[in-house]
Design goal:
Elements (H helix, E strand, L loop, with lengths): L14 H19 L13 E13 L5 E12 L2 E10 L4 E2 L14 E2 L7 E9 L5 E7 L5 E9 L6 E6 L6 E8 L3 E4 L4
Length: 189
């Protein structure tokens, strides 16, 4: 007696075309999701492209928020990077003119002290259909780095993501708002 195979032949059943359609839609939506990223050409001998940015991070375990801003510079059409100060909500300073004279009241403490920043490297890699990755380099802490995935919000155009700074560490949620690309001419006549 011959044994029949228990696996069903799926050719012609529409499964293959459904899987192909799903794969194409995934690639198109990933590409469309990268709309918040600039697509300017690489730097030339005439100048370079840069994009203003505002970065916020939230440590979900400690509720500490950080802020950094500056300009990402194009290293290639797919890579933008910068290094700027990062300010933190738990690093405070005495706000000027808030101390009451002749009292024991303390001065008002402002968060995000500009005299106690860290230096943070940010690099955005656009892999097109394969996604977006953001590299954070903790330059004040021995140049340790982490890559976190990024997603473009189609409504606001803000790049966001989450992950851990290090194994077994706290989770971080970030937002990276990018302005319009600007060409900076470095060619001198």
């Amino acid at each position: 007696m011959s044994k029949k195979s228990s696996t069903k032949d799926l050719r012609g059943s529409g499964v293959r075309s459904t899987l192909l359609s799903a794969a194409i839609l995934a690639l198109l939506s990933a590409e469309a999701g990268a709309s918040c990223l600039p697509s300017e050409p690489a730097p030339t001998y005439l100048g370079y492209w840069e994009v203003p940015y505002n970065l916020t991070t939230t440590n979900t375990a400690t509720n500490v928020v950080s802020y950094s801003s500056g300009h990402l510079v194009a290293e290639s059409p797919y890579t933008w990077s910068a290094s700027n100060p990062q300010l933190f909500s738990d690093r405070e300073y005495d706000a000027p003119n808030t101390c009451k004279p002749n009292t024991f009241a303390s001065c008002v403490l402002q968060p995000f002290s500009a005299v106690a920043p860290d230096e943070l490297g940010v690099a955005v890699y656009n892999y097109g259909a394969w996604g977006i990755s953001v590299k954070f380099t903790l330059e004040s802490w021995g140049n340790g780095f982490v890559f976190l995935p990024g997603t473009c919000d189609s409504v606001t155009g803000v790049l966001y993501g989450s992950g851990s700074w290090a194994p077994n560490s706290d989770n971080v949620f970030y937002t990276l708002a990018l302005g319009p690309p600007e060409f900076k001419n470095t060619f001198a006549w």
